[in-house]
């Protein structure tokens, strides 16, 4: 068949074979190529002139399959039924340039000019099978992701303007919704949606199906068979046909029932805390009024006692009467100081902060002068250059007076009291730290926190109410700062007061 047939009918057949998009091969009984068409030339890379007369095995059969191919030829020569026939099969073929391709092959047999001939139609299916394999891999991956997703997944039909019958459901959704796989597939999405949330779907789903939005996401409830609602974070998207027609919908369900319950519990606790705080504020206000009233009622007779004691000292300036009057006077003054301390402690907690700029140089100098006068000029207070701070002036004065006063009071009998005040600013936070260094008896490390507790006093011979440092802590904390005690470098203590910027 290397030449053109003489008969018009044969020429017509050859022309049809030449224009066929599939490769067409004619073999003799020894498996030698007698003719093949242009599609075969393009497919295998051999012109018909070079291919004719050669064994097909040598041309296109990969080496590892050649033995099996020859065995098939021997069976065919012996009259056995060939394994390859008219039904297409897929086999691997070899091209002239060494490439291997996957082809779909169908073989036929005919008698021509007294001898047997074989013909085959061959189609390259390499790309098609690669695409099919990729599609199967993608489908398997999607199926695996769907089945093993940690969130509920549903696939539903699209029914008019809404979601219809459940087509598929993953194990997470089965467990979440409390229904079996078969039961869910017998229901529509609307049938398991809480009736109070059905309007949400009716309002939003039509826009998704029209293509107004690509995805829906909102919170809704589904209903379990026992009637219990399941709150979910619900999302839905639509898979469309090539013309944009909705085919089915994909839904994700994340169970948020416990999260919402915890949020509701938090709201309830916050409401209870707010009510408790309001009640506590009212109780504190009442306590402040009670404290002020009691202090006023106590101070009136106390001042009368103090005045009469002083008169007794002036009238009877000798003997036992003098000692008794002096003792009464000292006790009355201590009681008056205690009442003043309690009032100061109460005001430090609840008084409004009326901030203003306070020059600490002036404040420390004034406090030092007042304390020196009270002590007969013996104490010594020094300072570095100090900043101005935006604070509540009256309350900060209490802090400075208390801390310096303690530093001057708690010293050994043969030591001249000395307190030095310095300040430093943190460049990153802009907070100021005031440091009060004294040469006193110091504070044991185990007591450095307790000294800020109300009524706590260290076992010393020095008088005190145990209220001053507690009041200082209240004032400093109300300014957003903190106060603490360290050892001094040469004995004594260093009280530090950190005050952040007021904004």
Automatic annotation (TrEMBL):
Domain (PAC): residue spans on this chain: 216-268
Domain PAS, residue spans: 9-80, 138-212
The keyword Iron-sulfur is annotated on this UniProt entry: no
Location(s) in or outside the cell: Cell membrane
UniProt keyword list: Coiled coil, Kinase, Phosphoprotein, Transferase, Two-component regulatory system
Regions annotated as coiled coil: 259-293
Catalytic activity from the UniProt record: ATP + protein L-histidine = ADP + protein N-phospho-L-histidine
EC assignment: 2.7.13.3
Domain Histidine kinase: 293-503
Entry keyword Cell cycle: no
PANTHER family: PAC DOMAIN-CONTAINING PROTEIN, PHYTOCHROME-LIKE PROTEIN CPH1
Protein's name according to its UniProt entry: histidine kinase
Organism this protein belongs to: Nocardioides pini
């Amino acid at each position: 068949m290397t030449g053109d047939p003489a008969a018009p009918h044969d020429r017509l057949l050859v022309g049809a074979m030449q224009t066929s998009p599939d490769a067409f091969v004619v073999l003799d009984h020894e498996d030698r190529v007698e003719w093949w068409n242009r599609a075969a030339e393009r497919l295998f890379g051999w012109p018909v002139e070079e291919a004719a007369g050669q064994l097909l095995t040598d041309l296109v059969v990969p080496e590892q399959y050649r033995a099996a191919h020859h065995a098939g030829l021997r069976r065919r020569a012996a009259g056995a039924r060939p394994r390859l026939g008219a039904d297409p099969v897929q086999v691997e073929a070899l091209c002239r340039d060494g490439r291997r391709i996957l082809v779909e092959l169908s073989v036929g047999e005919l008698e021509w000019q007294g001898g047997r001939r074989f013909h085959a139609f061959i189609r390259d299916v390499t790309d098609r099978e690669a695409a099919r394999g990729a599609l199967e891999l993608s489908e398997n991956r999607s199926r695996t992701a769907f089945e093993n997703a940690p969130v509920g997944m549903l696939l539903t039909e699209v029914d008019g303007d809404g979601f219809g019958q459940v087509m598929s459901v993953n194990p997470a959704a089965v467990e979440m919704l409390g229904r079996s796989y078969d039961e869910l597939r017998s229901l529509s999405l609307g049938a398991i949606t809480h009736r109070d949330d059905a309007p949400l779907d009716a309002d939003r789903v039509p826009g998704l199906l029209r293509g107004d939005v690509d995805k829906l996401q909102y919170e809704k409830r589904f209903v379990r068979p026992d009637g219990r609602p399941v709150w979910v974070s619900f999302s839905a998207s639509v898979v469309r046909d090539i013309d944009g027609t909705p085919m089915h919908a994909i839904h994700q369900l994340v169970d948020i029932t416990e999260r919402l319950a915890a949020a509701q519990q938090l709201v309830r606790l916050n409401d209870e805390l707010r009510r408790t705080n309001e009640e506590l504020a009212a109780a504190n206000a009442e306590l402040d009024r009670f404290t002020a009233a009691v202090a006023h009622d106590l101070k009136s007779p106390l001042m009368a006692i103090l005045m009469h004691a002083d008169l007794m000292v002036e009238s009877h300036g000798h003997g036992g009467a003098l000692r008794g009057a002096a003792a009464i006077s000292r006790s009355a003054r201590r009681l008056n100081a205690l009442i003043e301390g309690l009032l100061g402690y109460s005001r430090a907690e609840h008084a409004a902060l009326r901030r203003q700029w306070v020059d600490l140089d002036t404040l420390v100098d004034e406090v030092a002068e007042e304390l020196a006068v009270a002590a007969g000029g013996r104490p010594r207070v020094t300072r570095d250059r100090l900043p101005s701070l935006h604070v509540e002036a009256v309350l900060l004065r209490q802090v400075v007076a208390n801390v310096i006063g303690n530093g001057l009071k708690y010293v050994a009998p043969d030591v001249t009291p000395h307190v030095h005040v310095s300040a430093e600013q943190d460049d990153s936070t802009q907070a100021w730290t005031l440091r009060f260094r004294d040469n006193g008896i110091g504070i044991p490390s185990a007591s450095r926190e307790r000294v800020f507790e109300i009524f706590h006093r260290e076992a010393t011979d020095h008088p005190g109410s145990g209220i001053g440092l507690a009041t200082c802590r209240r004032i400093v904390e109300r300014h957003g700062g903190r106060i603490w005690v360290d050892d001094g470098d040469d004995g004594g203590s260093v009280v530090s007061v950190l005050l952040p910027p007021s904004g």
